[in-house]
Amino acid sequence: MATAVSASGGAVAVLGSREGSADGSSARKSAVGLALRYYWGELRRQWVIAVPALTAPALGNICLFYLAPLAVAGLVGHLAAGGDGSVAALLPYVLGFGGLLLAGEVLWRIGLHFLNRTDARGIERLGVLGMDELLTKDAAFFHDNFAGSLTKRVLSFSSRFEEFADTLTFSIMAKVVPLTFASVVLWQYHPLLVLVLVGLILVTGFLVAPLIRRRQRLVEEREAAKVLVSGHVADVLTNMETVRAFAAEDREATEHRARVAEQQRLSLRSWDYGNLRVDTVVAPISVLTSAVGLLLAVALRGGLGVEAIVVTFTYYSNTISIMFEFNQIYRRMESVLTEAAQFTELLLVPPTVVDPPDPQPLRPADAGVRFERVRFAYADGPPLFDGLDLDIPSGTKIGLVGQSGGGKSTLTRLLLRLMDIDDGRILVGGQDISRLRQADLRGLIAYVPQDPAMFHRTVRDNIAFARPGATEAEILRAARAAHVTEFVESLPDGFDTLVGERGIKLSGGQRQRLALARAILRDAPILLLDEATSALDSESELLVQEALWHLMQDRTALVVAHRLSTVVRMDRLVVLNRGRVVEQGTHGDLLQADGTYARLWRHQSGGFLIEDDAEDDADAEDDAGVEDDANVEDDETSSALHR
Ligand SMILES: Nc1ncnc2c1ncn2[C@@H]1O[C@H](COP(=O)(O)OP(=O)(O)OP(=O)(O)O)[C@@H](O)[C@H]1O
Ligand SMILES: [Mg+2]
After folding, report:
1. Which pTM value belongs to this model?
2. Ligand 1 mean position to 625 CA, how many Å?
């Protein structure tokens, strides 16, 4: 075991020194170290089965390759000494030989029995642990990491444990333990036999180490080429519709061919290096070792006898396989730990949005929301909010409008504490949200995101997600209120229809209605709707609006909308511009004030577009997004609702 650790520890050191920058290098080293600790910890945790798993094959090998030859040597020695050659006299040797082979096989079966269990339990536990870690990550983490790559990393982290344990068992323990045994036996004959054998193995190790390290660079280039191939494949597959729409299949296929060819070239180069450079050093030394072993045995024969020649020759031949293992062990451990480290490096930066160590019990005075001097900036960006104040008394319905990119969605995410603010406070019912458990806070809020995605589950499961344990009647009521029932009836399996990855088999408006049904079922005191009806046609929107209006009674609501008709009835409208509240008031107040809102309203109700563009030259840049959106708005709805 000790040797095993140092072997993999060596891999860590070499791996760690690969990266160019000091920062990257130390992060990588820590990630590999962490991966190793997880794997090693897993073996220790289940030591009761791990110890027999690691040792039984090694003991089996001793029986098969070191003890059984002793029986043969004994027989040869017996005959050479002119002993009785009858079958009866030789039978004990033969039985001993057979018995040892049998014992070896039995030990191997026992070892594999325990190894299978060690592998399976380790993979299970690490799989659970990996997912648990990902579930604690904050929103920023998922903005920075792609789902595809995370999936691959977390699954490899657990599955590669199998190769880790197998390499430890088959390539390290099953070789090193018998070597120790062989040394003890050979020492009895002559210490020189041991010194030469171990010496030559060590020499091989020293000669091969720098070559293996040099091969490392080639392996890195090969792996980088692989990432380029898989990145391109994933990118094309996720954008398949765009590829088709632009008839770009051939272009993408050509690109793919080039990348695969490069991967092929680099793979071959790294493999050839292993075969032509590393093994060309090992091969002659291994031949030399066998020959030297035989020579020594013969030279020392005087005191040893023919038996020793047989044993020495056999032991030398068996142990030289360890020389070829150096490269293999390194290759396997390196690839295992590199892949595992791709996951553990994600754990080096702890999640920023975490529950406080001593959370306050949830006892909101009401359902009011307050933003106090809130400062927030996305990583590496300028502050989006700087001293933002916004008060939403309990039971008020607020419409949040303003230019695209103004920070409306960000504000909703901050209230949900998907990200943490840099300064200031956000209060819900008088309680600072950073002092609450995240689950408690989010239990108060029903949220419909701007671009709702669905699970690849049934329509029913997608709605029920909002409230586990909801009854069928409650789910149906929510579905009816959000006008989901209308389109579900035309789906092949009704509420049991699977909606495709991210809900791809539904239209944008249908997804939105499902998201609304979720919010309705959630039945929380605070409603957070981010463009919740933007993808609906005017008629459906009108229907859904009525349902929402009903839902909002006696609740606090924050409704983000570009289509101003959606929010005219709100108690108060807040106009957000570049992270600042530039205007507040009712629809009537704001029209009268004749500011940004009034101008937006005129754009959307038509007529003043050209005139306004000329007029507001200074604001043109700020409002570009709004104008884009406004131009596609539906005038009919505006007039319909603006009664
Ligand atoms: N994950 C992110 N990382 C960095 N910057 C971001 C991120 N998400 C949004 N931003 C930036 O923050 C600003 C505000 O974005 P936000 O989505 O809050 O705007 P919005 O008002 O909801 O716009 P829209 O009306 O188009 O939905 C934008 O400039 C955007 O580029
Ligand atoms: Mg938005």
Report:
1. 0.76
2. 12
